[in-house]
Amino acid sequence: MAKFSMLNFIRTQRAKPPPVEQVDLTGKTVIVIGANAGLGFETTKHFASMNPGRLILACRSESKGNAALERIKAETGCKTAELWIVDLTEFASVRRFADRFEQEGGRLDILVANAAVMLGKYEETKDKWDTCLQVNCLAMPLLSLLLLPHMVRTGSQYSTVPRIVVVASDVHYWASIEKRVLETPNVLTTLGSKEYCTPNVMGDKRYFLTKMLNILFVRALNDRIEASTPLVVNAVNPGYCYSNIRQSFSGAQAVVDYLMEKSVALPTEAGSRQLVWAAIGDNSSPNKFRGEYITLWRKVDEVSDYILTPEGGKLQDRIWNELIEILGKVDPRVSSTIETYLRPGPN
User: Fold this and answer.
1) Of these residues, 28, 196, 211, 293, which one is catalytic?
2) pTM of this prediction?
3) Which of 47, 213, 238, 261 is most solvent-facing, going by the fewest CB within 10 Å?
């Protein structure tokens, strides 16, 4: 498609990134998921230089999280950063994180939902889901919805507009869902099952699909947030960056990725500037980012043609309804959040 041609991809990758956005975060609380490495670390480091009232590094590994925390403190002088553990491969861990925030979190101004995995084969979580689907498309929405009430209250109490930033990707333009999946009673359950996750449907295509599902989540959630509610949710494309997310590649796939990195990959820090922009850019008019897809560089762009079709709209609402049913069984607070803070979706 013209709006995502290979030529445009190369041009944007090679364009000079704008400087990182800077604002004063005094008194504000920021959470970055997956803050110990890659885009998450670089994004957290940028926030650490803006005098945040509280900066929470949400990491799976305590040892890696502590190493990142100490490095950020040493390199930025930030004294308000702290490590909280959350493992997105376990719903119970997400619930514990939310429980802790209810007890001691207070206000919440920015949530950067950055964690994602790219696996070439089916790996089952303790919750009996495919790891890639659970981490990228179930646990991330679960945490976002459990923290959403804190963000709405923060907006009302402090006359501000908190933001949920979901890290997506331009690879969503290449994603699709097979007809045989759409014909099943529950799309997400099918996509997360061992029976469906054969080697033919895993790998790159699986990751592409999860990024499309991320955008569907952002758009569906935004459709259900009243215009008067002080909360913005958006999706952001950081570009093709040097990243350890592709460390599982092997053989020809690894060779191709190596050559692409050498020719067009962005430094990880440059990609993180996109995440920062999605979280604090145009602070005087944050509502312009409601439900939007932000791509290189600081540009609000259209999502894939498929998502914009009537068929894509129906899928978006179907996925939302299935997601809420699944997550409501994981934690009843999800259902309470939907009833209290969101409006019904479009018919």
Assistant:
1) 211
2) 0.96
3) 261
